[in-house]
């Protein structure tokens, strides 16, 4: 029996990936590492920011300048304030989960500050209480390891087997599968074959989610 639906944030609730990867590509190019936004997404999607920095420094063969990470976050957040929108039908999907008597939470690879900012900018912050937001910064290992989803389920009082993950990245899908959870892969703007290969049941419109959960 389903008890809990765990939503990823970026790419699932908010359409942030094009913005984040554009800013990232611009800032890496300024340092001499040429990446298109599409290339940045392929290489860095689903990684912790510190791991993005480590990979970029490895490709450059030198450290990024002091303060680069903080400057990236500032520029990304400013772009979010101007451009970020909720994923179509995300609000209705969360509302349907609540109306069916299921719990809902957010578990993101990103820092809590970013998740709060993203939800506030898009008008989704009222959907979740503060104790329903979880970040990989709170666990030993981020996705693709199961730690974050297990932490979220435990905190929400749900058995992993009764928890459903909604993800849009192969690493997130792998984390949900490793946690022993059913995983629904949102493939509107992701590699559907890669999500399936990682173990997800895929769908392409957030409005389909209630039916996928059997609550429509």
Tell me briefly what this model is.
The chain is 47% helix and 12% strand.
Task: Describe the 3D structure.
- The protein has 216 residues and is α/β, with parallel strands linked by helices.
- It has 2 domains: 4-15 and 85-213, HAD superfamily/HAD-like (Rossmann fold), CATH 3.40.50.1000; 17-83, DNA polymerase, domain 1 (Orthogonal Bundle).
- It contains 10 helices and 6 strands, in the order E-H-H-H-H-H-E-H-E-H-E-H-E-H-E-H.
- It has helices at residues 17-30, 37-44, 49-60, 68-83, 90-99, 112-121, 147-156, 170-178, 192-198, 209-213, and strands at residues 4-7, 103-108, 133-135, 163-167, 182-186, 201-203.
- A 6-stranded parallel beta sheet has the order 3-2-1-4-5-6, sandwiched between helices.
- The mean pLDDT is 95.
Structural class: alpha/beta
> How many individual β-strands?
6
Strand order of the largest sheet: 3-2-1-4-5-6
Number of helices: 10
**Looking at CATH, which topology of the largest domain would you report?**
Rossmann fold
> Can you tell me the overall shape?
globular
Q: Tell me, what is the CATH class of the largest domain?
A: Alpha Beta
The assigned CATH architecture of the largest domain is: 3-Layer(aba) Sandwich
Q: What's the rounded overall pLDDT mean?
A: 95
End-to-end CA span? 16 Å
> What's the alpha carbon Rg, rounded to whole Å?
17 Å
Report the sheet with the most strands, covering strand number, pairing sense and barrel closure.
6 strands, parallel
Order of helices and strands: EHHHHHEHEHEHEHEH
- What level of helicity do the residues show? 40-55%
Count of the separate structural domains: 2
Name of the CATH homologous superfamily of the largest domain = HAD superfamily/HAD-like
Low-confidence stretches: none
Strand content: 5-15%
């Amino acid at each position: 029996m389903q008890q809990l639906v765990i939503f990823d944030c970026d790419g699932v609730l908010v359409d942030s990936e094009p913005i984040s990867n554009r800013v990232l590509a611009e800032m890496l190019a300024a340092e001499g590492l040429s990446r298109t936004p599409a290339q940045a997404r392929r290489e860095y999607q689903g990684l912790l920011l510190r791991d993005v920095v480590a990979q970029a420094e490895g490709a450059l063969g030198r450290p990024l300048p002091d303060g680069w990470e903080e400057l990236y976050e500032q520029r990304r957040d400013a772009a979010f304030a101007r451009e970020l929108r909720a994923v179509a039908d995300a609000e209705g999907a969360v509302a349907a989960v609540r109306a069916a008597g299921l719990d809902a939470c957010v578990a993101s690879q990103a820092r809590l500050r970013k998740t709060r900012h993203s939800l506030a900018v898009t008008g989704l912050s009222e959907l979740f209480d503060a104790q329903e937001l979880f970040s990989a910064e709170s666990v030993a290992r981020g996705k693709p390891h199961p730690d974050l989803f297990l932490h979220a389920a435990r905190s929400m009082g749900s058995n992993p087997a009764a928890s459903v993950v909604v993800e849009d990245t192969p690493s997130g899908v792998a984390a949900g599968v490793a946690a022993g959870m059913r995983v629904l892969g949102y493939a509107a703007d992701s590699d559907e074959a890669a999500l399936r290969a990682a173990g997800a049941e895929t769908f392409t419109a957030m409005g389909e989610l209630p039916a996928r959960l059997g609550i429509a």
